[in-house]
Amino acid sequence: MAASPEIAPAVRSTVDKWSGDGGSAGGTCVVVDISEVNSVDMAAVIAAQHNVGLAGVGSANGTLQLPDVWLPDSSTWLVRLKTLAPGFTPTDGGSVARSPVVAAMPEPLAESLGWPDKKVGWADLLKQITTGTGLRTGIVEPTRDAAGLSGLLSLAAAAATAGGSAPQAQTAALRSLAIGRSALRDDLVAKFPQASDAASLASGLNVAPLSEEDVIAYNAKKPPVPLAALYVEPTPAPLDYPFAIMPGVDPAKTAAAEAVHEALDSGAFRNLLGAQGLRSPDGTWGAGFVAPTGAPSPAGGPPSATPNAGGKAAGGLDPAALDRSLATWTAVTAPGRMLAVMDVSGSMLEEVPEADNATRMAVTLAAAQAGLNLFDDSWALGLWTFSTRLDGNKDWRQLVPIGPLSSNRPQMLGALKTISPKPDGDTGLYDTLLAAYKAVQDEWAADRVNSIVMFTDGKNDDDNGINEQTLLAQLKDLADPRRPIQVIILGIGSGVDEGQLKRITSVTGGGVFVTKDPTKIGDIFLKALALRPAAPR
């Protein structure tokens, strides 16, 4: 057996006693070897066996062997593997333990939100995350961690209730989580405040989806600032520890595995789980369980379905929903290499009544500065402006070359503050877009999503530049499917020719987003960000 590390001690103790008491299957003595293996590592081994790749999981560890029985922390691993590998058909799959997924938060901050008396919903957390309240969020990489994935699914579901603003809410939440993400659970929890003073509480991690067992283990170490476990509603899919007998195991070993599973269905095992900070499959707990403040019993949602029951698992989770959430996460958080190109033609001086008569330029720049905060230091960004004859005979001017935000973030912020429209400038859109495409293609990066994001309030009206037919023909010649560049054009106001812009992106790939109300530029930027594909492998 390969078991998730947090449950392995309880399993080993129970199985050792069962074996010592003469445990057998059909009269045959059974020897059980139990190894502690992180679920993501075993998932990589199984994926490699079936010649598939799980997003974010990476290559298999060459020292790990395929077990007869796998006890991962969540059925979501089984669902992900089965979705990609039809030959992966484990049997049994019944849950042997449970740990609810909670929102972990430093106790002083939780108390400021009314904990433990006040119930908190995912919609409440989503609002805190996406409205610039300064809530520092984090997550263990959801492609590699089942609790992180469960939290991601819950936030995505909360965003879906936001009506017309759902895509923006989801993208803002994902970017906020991505900025504070960690590849390892230990790295994430180390970001929580290590002192109780106001400065430490303000600068440390404020909230992250973790398992209840994670919170119990963290608090058992008596940290300076304990964590509160917020049992956020609607209830996320819990970690459900399925007992999965691997496909191809011979009948004798299958019978032995089934006998072992029966041995784990006991009061003694339930109490051992409690000592490890885990619950029974029904969401109640045994002796030795140190319940977090406010912990309900039972908890964690309805009992999990087996992964072969009606195509659903982990509390009835739809595999398609799981796959969609992971794809969106990968697309939005994939390291990006982006050239932002901003229109500074004279029409950008027009006032916007909905923004207290600020100019279109001012509204757009405010949105750009807010958008810059969504990108972490793994991104590479550059900045151009364009009109007509902006730099000699060129319609564009480079303000910041494309470079890592880890070093050029101050340059980007400084350059945005210097931008002002050219009062008599027209819109040299075609010449600029062609030059931008060539510039991004010249230094195309294989490990990133390469894109151009153009902000404009008009259509091409440069009599001295190339025409649409020439632009489209040259873009077709330049386009290389092995080195894709996505062109996203954000149109502002009523002067935009949406058809003209869509003809461009039909050649390059990407999308056109137009709003008549310039104050909505931030919203359509988030929609555009969600459109980005995953980085090439």
TrEMBL record:
InterPro entries: VWF_A, vWFA_dom_sf
Region (Disordered): 286-316
Cross-referenced Gene3D superfamilies: von Willebrand factor, type A domain
SUPFAM superfamilies: vWA-like
Source taxon at top rank: Bacteria
Domain VWFA: 337-529
PROSITE patterns in the cross-refs: VWFA (PS50234)
Designated name of the protein: VWFA domain-containing protein
Source organism (scientific name): Phytohabitans houttuyneae
